[in-house]
Design goal:
The protein has about 200 residues and is α/β, with parallel strands linked by helices. The chain has six helices and seven strands, in the order ααβαβαββαβαββ. Strand 2, helix 4 and strand 3 form a beta-alpha-beta unit. It is globular and about 40 Å long. The termini are far apart.
Amino acid sequence: MPQPAHSLDPRHPATSPHDLYMTKPPWDIDRPQAAFTSLAAAGNLQGRVLDAGCGTGEHALLAAGLGCDAVGVDLSADALDTAQRKARERGLVARFVRHDACALPELGEQFDTVLDSGLFHIFTGTDRTRYTDSLHAVIRPGGGYFLLGFSDAETRQWGPHRLSRDEITAAFATGWQIDAIEPSVIEINGDPGSVAAWLVALTRK
């Protein structure tokens, strides 16, 4: 698999959101991540659902298929066009908005569940704080946030920043209840097929 480090980070200085989808990116697998499919099967996708950094919309569409009011946000217009086409083809109702996930309060909406597949792990420093603050502002108290991000158990030398358990705990130390941090995988297209990840479940206090 070619090194996808820049394409896994839409804030990389050499990469625009448009560039990410000029060719099929590694994480665009044409189906929801198995980790989130399992969450859905367990009844964890409830109420109004936001897919943060939705890409081509698989997780928003997963929620829409369960009857949830689903919204996806992303900076890539190309990805959002694909998401809207998928919704039409599948006969599903979901709304896709070009918007910065670090400025979610500007949407003027509240959500019961937020799904994040491969977004949190691109942020460091003040950007990470902006993102977690943004999430906290739009998730209703008692609502859930589910994060799937690169893990420091991944040893291959490409991709975005690898998250440690301690980093995750520190990022959500205030205003959140950490319900679970479990080893998981992010499925990708092409070899090796998946990378080590953390699946994190949090409740907004």
